[in-house]
Structure formats: C-alpha cells, structure tokens
Design brief:
The chain is of the alpha/beta class. The chain is built from 12 helices and 9 strands. Strands 4-5-6-7-8-9 form a 6-stranded parallel sheet, with helices on both faces. It is globular. 50% of the residues are buried.
C-alpha cells in the first residue's frame, strides 16, 4: 500500500459509497512519463477503498502486455487490472493490427488518438503543465480521416474489430467533429461501449456536440484529477462537475481518477476527495454509484447493462 501517513482516511459512510467502483483511467507505470506507482502497486492501492477493477491507460503502448508480463505479481493482487491500447503514433496510429493484437491478448479498451490527436497537439503547443517528459518520442499527428475527406478504411476496420470484440472505444483527445464521425462509424459497426473523455478540456465539445455523441450511445467521462486541489491544472471547481452531472444525467456520466502521475495524488485519494465533495454538494449516493460503479462496470465489460 502506497498511502502515506497524511493520506485522507475515508469515513465508513464514504467507504460504503466507494466500494465496488471501477476506475477506467489509471496512469500507473511503466510509461515514458514519470509515474508514482506501477500496475501491481495500483492494484493493491485500489483495495484501500474496495475498487472492483481498474483499467490501465498508457498514451504510448499496449498495456495488456505489461499486465501479462506482471501476471505472477498480479496473481494474488486484490484488484483485477485490465489493459488496452491507445492509437497514437507509437503503435502506428489508427492501426487495426495494433487493435487486433490488444484484443487477442485480452484487451478491454481501445482509445482513439490522445497525445497524437491534432486537438491535443494544438492545445499543448504552449507550456500549460502537461508533462513534457518523453516529448522526444517522434510523435506525429494521427487522424481518422482519409485524404479524400471520408472516414479512413483503417478507422472503419478498427471500429469493426472493437464491435466484434464487444469492448470499449474511447474518442481519446480527438476534436469534436472527428469524434462524432468516429462514434457514428462505431455505432454502425456494433460498438455499444463508447466513452467521451473530458468534453470541457482539450476536446472542447459544445453542448450540441455532446448531445450528438450521447445519441450514438456514448457515456461522458469526467476526471477526478481536474477537480483535486493537489493537481495544478486545470483546477476546475466542483460546481462545474455538479453542473455536468445535472446536464447529462448520472445514467450517462462516468467519473474516473486519471491519476497515477509522479507528482499527483494517488488514484484512490482522488476518489476519497472528489466523491466526498460531490456528496457535500448534494449529489445522491445512488447517483454517485451509478456513475462510478454501474456505468464503469458496463463499459469495462464486467456487466452487460448499466
């Protein structure tokens, strides 16, 4: 357990709310970016609040390989850990082969381009606190579009593979127009587990964009890292998250940690702080569990409905 002496201690009432949550956004290591904990340590730390499962996300590689390499160390670990692949330039971008490998190895998620998305590159063209370690990775911009302006054949094939496997597809950090096209294609190809990350950060999706993506069956994710005082940026007020929950509804909202970075709080500490804040701001226990337990379990494929 990595918790330090000054780590927050959740009350029994809060622990009851948190028990069984699924974190779909854990940034443990290995990674080119510095991480505070590895995947095995993340599993043990998740047990502090009784998490049901965690999903390990890397911007740079297939995390299923990590988990298989750590299989002996994870055999007795208390919290199941799952992996997937993000379609950035390190794996060949929108690459059906990389997706097929991840799926065959047991992957539960495919993320659209994140650090290689044009929207991300433009958003972080100036120093705004986003990690710069590993910025010499020869990354290039990746797009879902073919030269003639249609959704590329590679993108179509990726969505077919995800649909056949029944796993989650995230829009990553794509711009809203690209993400809408990706989700429309995915829906046509049978993808039922779709996730829109932080519409108010990097993606900058309008209310109309979000509504359209909800129409394709997407869930809207918000990250605890953006509301925790121990994370420098963006430092959103908790009222912003409450507003999003009211606007979209808990049935289609997901809240995950997006933590594990070296200088940030542990993922579990994100849950302890942010969920208590939501309770203090009047969000019901039932709605919170819908967002952190049921919706997330469905997206990870642990349940067939949410």
């Amino acid at each position: 357990m990595l918790a330090t002496e000054d780590a927050p201690i959740p009350s029994p009432a809060l622990l009851k709310v948190l028990h069984g949550a699924v974190d779909l956004h854990v940034h443990s290591g290995p990674s080119p970016f510095p991480r505070r904990l590895n995947h095995v340590e993340a599993s043990y730390d998740a047990a502090r609040i009784g998490l049901r499962a965690i999903l390990i996300k890397s911007h740079h590689h297939n995390t299923v390989m990590d988990l298989l390499a750590m299989r002996d160390l994870l055999a007795d670990a208390p919290t199941p850990a799952y992996g997937g692949v993000a379609l950035n330039s390190e794996v060949g971008g929108i690459n059906p082969s990389a997706v097929a490998v991840a799926i065959q190895m047991g992957g539960r998620a495919v993320w659209g381009p994140t650090v290689s998305a044009g929207q991300h590159i433009r958003a972080h063209s100036h120093d705004d606190g986003f990690p710069t370690a590993g910025s010499n990775l020869e990354e290039r911009e990746e797009s879902i579009w073919a030269a003639e302006g249609d959704v590329s054949a590679e993108t179509v094939r990726v969505t077919q593979l995800v649909g056949e496997a029944g796993i989650m597809l995230s829009g990553g950090h794509l711009d809203a127009e690209s993400m809408k096209a990706l989700f429309a294609t995915a829906k046509d190809n049978g993808v039922t587990r779709l996730l829109l990350h932080h519409p108010d950060f990097i993606v900058n999706a309008s209310d109309g964009d979000v509504e359209e993506m909800l129409g394709y069956g997407a869930f809207v994710e918000h990250e605890m890292s953006m509301y925790h005082p121990g994370v420098p940026a963006p430092g959103f007020p908790i009222s912003q998250l409450v507003d999003w929950i009211e606007k979209v509804g808990p049935e289609r909202t997901v809240i995950d940690s997006d933590l594990g970075q070296l200088t940030n709080p542990l993922p579990v500490d994100g849950y302890i702080y942010v969920i208590q804040q939501l309770l203090d701001h009047g969000v019901s226990e039932r709605d919170i569990r819908q967002m952190i337990c049921r919706n997330t379990a469905f997206l990870l494929g642990l349940e067939e409905t949410n």
